[in-house]
Amino acid sequence: MIHPRPSVRVRRAALACLSGGLLLAGASSTPVAADTRPSIRLDNGTLTVDGFLDNRDSGDTRETFVSVDGAENTRGKLTVTFDASDVKDFFPASTTGLVPCDPDGDLIGECDHPHQRLSLNVPAKATAAGRSGRIRITAKVDGKVQDRAEVTVHVKDPGLVFDRAPTGFADVEPGSRLDLPGGFTNYSSYHGYRSVIVDVYFPNGLSPVEEFGNCAYAMSNTGAPRISGQDTSMSCRLTGPISPGGSYDLDLGPVEVGHQAVLLNIRYSARPEKPGAEGPEPLRGRPGKGRPLTFTERAEGATHVRSRSLPVTTSVRTTNQADFAVNHVTLKGKVGDVVDADFFFVNNGPGAVPAVFDSEENNETAPVVQLALPKGITVIKAPENCAEEPDPPTDRNTKGGKEADGPLYRCWQGRMDKSALMTPGSFEHFPFSIRLDRPGRTVNDTADSGYVLIKTELTVDEFDEDKDNNRSHISLDVKAAPRASATSTEQDTASRRATIGGAAAGVALAFAAHIPWRRRGIRSPSIGTDATGGNAAASEGPEPTP
């Protein structure tokens, strides 16, 4: 079939359409010039600060990241200026580093990098409580402004704060008394209060001498009469008015230092009372007897005001020290016997110290003792709170540079928490069952002997009066097995005697272990001595005794 040839007019029209389409296609493939003007981007537009460095865990936002988007497309010199002059009165005159790129400390910084961090990890002045201001940020290219942004700075209103107490007392004699001044400030510029609650916590070893009629007293076992060895919490209702911005002082009376105290901390707090529907807020504990605790307006020049380290505490360091010790154990019997060996970690006193031996939140696995058992034995049973170390490290404390070749164990506390004290006589014991595999008798400086060593993550040297008993030996006194001519009945009888002897020696120790932390400890003159006798399968240094 023959197709008719298009006319000249039709061909020209088609060419025109094709040309137009190509032009349109070419136009669409050419990128449209974008707006490359730099713009400031903030992660956070509001920063919150307060006057107390110790309150950094409050969850407030104290920093923001500042970025200039499009900075890579600029052809001139980019600068980012931070101007914090609006919040100058919020911070002490000595404050530095408030804004980046501010070497002269005039609160105006000019940076030549598009990414900066604005961090306000500095305390504000108490007079700035409740106020807000702005930090202005400007992006420029060759001195011409491209964009502006602002960060709002808000100073928290902390309200009522206990802010007056002694920082601490040192070299205090046990049994003496300390005077305890106190005080609080209403940092709010707008809110007053009709009444406030003041709480004071006295740890075990410190106790208030005087009671106040408007206070309640709660002990560690609430409702029981106060006795030595308990914590005391004092909660007092003080009737106002408490004016906005007002500071007030009070006299908490003397506190008595216990005979076992070593290093303790008194804690304080103050807050507005929260009356319930049925009347005043109830105070926890039994009512006190005596005059009411009162307060007066703070005079100029008052001492012990603590506006920079809150919450307030008072440390009490006495002349007391503790004495941590471990016991000398001799593994005694004949080859094939399974003997009981009890190792002790004890505080001989006279001071009581916090039972905190590692940096973990709980204290259930805080290692306190390392055991290097002598060679020639086999551990049949180890306590749950002891674990064998696969590769024993060199013990540089061993005399003559020698070390035990037997198994190495690390043992930790089994029943302590961070809030407890290790009082004199408190101990942790580690009972092992050990089989004697070969005969021999060791002396303390041979490689055949082992050792038991106090080894904690946190050092106990600060409180330990006698460090010589922090390490002791594990010795062997093993006789050969009965002669081959001995009958099986004679061998069985001898084995039972050794085992029974070992069990008898361990009964008192096992009984003592069920009285946690309340027995008298190993006295230092006895550490490292034997107390063998009879057919005891395991002879030890003096155990904690009733």
Automatic annotation (TrEMBL):
The keyword Signal applies. Residues 270-293, 385-406, 522-546 are annotated as: Disordered. This is Peptidase. It comes from the Bacteria. Keywords: Signal. Residues 1-33 form the signal peptide. Residues 270-284, 393-405 have a biased composition (Basic and acidic residues).
